[in-house]
Design brief:
single chain; alpha/beta; seven-stranded mixed beta sheet
């Protein structure tokens, strides 16, 4: 997950360039946010407003200052619809984005920001966008407000809103010693009711499922444990974060390696006990 690197720069000068227009359509526009960063973002809004070369607007200014906090060096903004209009009522819905035209910049981007807002409008265009962006799903993010609403439109955001993967339900993998079976089950229920997809262990080798080891020779036992350890790391790959079941502060060697793996791959780590 992306972490904030810089404090908000509310005086950041937003000077767009390389805007591409065709008749009354704006195809794309660029902003250099931080010349010291090589990270690139593609932001997908609803439709272009008044921004053009050397002239920003509220949407472009706010998203530029927001992404500056996350060490983004340059952004390119495209939209679901290419009609230039200050009011959504002026959008020509036949002028939808031509995704194939932007394939290269989407491939090159470090992050793609879904920024088309939470309103129940243009649902077919939004669904089409999600279907196309599925191939880039690991790097599609959005802005989520304090009430959990996402994806927020840049003009509506607070600079303190969260920058999160674009998923309806975050995916959380549980880690910890399998001796804590009751705690695993309790936390799984709790996180599920909070709106998370929860991935747990496949069996509790130290918490009631010990019969699985009984007829294994030493070599098979070793290979099976190695497979289970590797399998759990693949579960972490699928997740947005891990939740560590550290009853009494206990964290074993296997769990420690999972925590290190999660952090190395940019996953957030939470604990049952701080």
């Amino acid at each position: 997950m992306f972490q904030k690197k810089y404090k908000l720069n509310s005086k950041l000068i937003v000077d767009p360039f390389d805007s591409v227009f065709e008749d009354n359509r704006r195809i794309s526009i660029k902003v250099q946010i931080n010349p010291d960063s090589c990270r690139k973002a593609v932001v997908v809004g609803i439709n272009p407003s008044t921004a053009c070369d050397h002239h920003s607007d509220l949407t472009l200014t706010k998203i530029s200052r927001y992404l500056y906090q996350y060490d983004i060096g340059e952004l390119i903004m495209i939209n679901l619809f290419e009609t230039v209009s200050t009011e959504q009522e002026g959008i020509d819905e036949s002028q939808q984005v031509r995704w194939e035209r932007h394939e290269q910049i989407l491939c090159d981007a470090d992050v793609i920001v879904a920024a088309w807002g939470v309103e129940d409008r243009y649902l077919k265009a939004k669904q089409r966008a999600l279907e196309y962006l599925l191939q880039f799903s690991d790097k599609v993010y959005c802005i989520r407000d304090k009430k959990g609403h996402k994806p927020r439109h840049p003009s509506r955001i607070s600079y303190q809103d969260e920058f999160v993967p674009y998923r309806k339900y975050p995916v959380v993998t549980l880690c910890g010693s399998t001796r804590f079976k009751e705690e695993f089950i309790k936390v799984q229920k709790q996180l599920t009711l909070e709106g998370n997809i929860v991935i747990s262990v496949g069996l509790f080798g130290h918490g009631g499922d010990s019969e699985v080891w009984e007829n294994m020779d030493e070599g098979t036992l070793t290979r099976t444990k190695e497979m289970l350890d590797d399998m759990h790391k693949r579960k972490i790959d699928l997740s947005d974060e891990i939740f560590v079941i550290n009853v009494g502060g206990y964290i074993g060697e296997s769990t420690r390696s999972e925590i290190d793996y999660a952090r190395a791959h940019g996953k957030m780590v939470r604990y049952l006990e701080s």
